[in-house]
Every structure is written in C-alpha cells, then in structure tokens.
Amino acid sequence: MIIERSSVVGAPIGQVWARVVDPEGINDEMRPWMTMSIPRGRESLTIDSVPVGEPLGRAWLRLFGLVPFDYDDLTIAELEPCRRFHEKSTMLSMRRWEHERTLRPFDDGSTGVHDRITFEPRLPLVPLTPVLARVLRAFFAHRHRRLVRHFD
C-alpha cells in the first residue's frame, strides 16, 4: 500500500532539511501521538550523517512518548543531502516499511515537502491494511501540519 502527502513550508530548503533530518525535529512532527528513539549508540547521528545502506538498529516507537508499542529496524537506503532521503526498514508490525521524503525549493523561498510511504503489514495485520492506511494518512497529515506550523 502506498500513501503520499505534500505540503509547502514557508522556509528555505536548507532550514527545512535541517529540521526534517534532526531527531528532535522528527519527534516534534510526531508529537503528541508518538515519538521515536534513536538506536542505541547512534544518538549523535542525524539522517544526513548516517552510513547509507547500513542497518542502524532498532528505533523504538513510543505511544504518547512513553509506551513502547513497535520498533523500526532503521536503514537509510538512499540519501541526497538537502533534497531527499529514502528509508527502507522492517518493523515489528510491518514486513516492509519505506518512507521517502523529498524537498523541493520554490522561487519564493518556500519549500515543497513530499512524503511517500510504502508499507506491507505482517501477516496477522494484513486484514487491517485499510484501517492502517487511514491511520497513516491521518498521522502524516498531522506531521505535515506540525512541520508547517514550526516555520510559521
């Protein structure tokens, strides 16, 4: 299943990129619904400083920032600094999880942000795919609103 979401952020691409690759910026987008830990021993990394193609370890997802409910076995498969990253991972709940975020500068100094999420739930959750798709659409809409609001 594929989900896509786009927004325009009122800030230059360099500022937006710095925000979307930083663990604090990522968690700010997800709050208050959840947060994501950094894999153990990788706390000083940002998305644009990780070794591309190398599994980084488990990033725990925490409901309301407190209750661990899933993990992302995180790998950044492709990286174009200040333009794009493509995460290809597995999760406890997902056989396949891909998150590709692309940034595009506009002439007025704003930045287009586009997310493409591809997911395939593990067997017990396959019947819930339509529900998961709705939840993920709403969650990424929330993330985009938070990112846009940060730069307002």
- In sequence order, what are the helices and strands, one letter per element? EHHEEEEEEEH
Shape: globular
Number of strands: 8
Uncertain residue segments: none
Element layout with pairings:
Layout: E1 2-9, H1 13-21, H2 23-30, E2 34-36, E3 57-63, E4 67-74, E5 76-80, E6 84-91, E7 94-105, E8 111-121, H3 129-150
How would you characterize the overall build of this protein?
It is built from 3 helices and 8 strands; from the N terminus they run E-H-H-E-E-E-E-E-E-E-H. It is of the alpha+beta class and 152 residues long. A hairpin with a 3-residue loop joins strand 3 (57-63) and strand 4. Helix 1 crosses helix 2 (23-30) and helix 2 crosses helix 3 (129-150). The chain is globular. This is Ligand-binding SRPBCC domain-containing protein.
Nutshell version of this structure?
The chain is 26% helix and 41% strand. With 152 residues, the protein is of the alpha+beta class. Helix 1 (13-21) packs across helix 2.
Short key terms for the protein model shown above:
single chain, 152 residues, alpha+beta, 8-stranded antiparallel beta sheet, 3 helices, 26% helix, 41% strand, globular
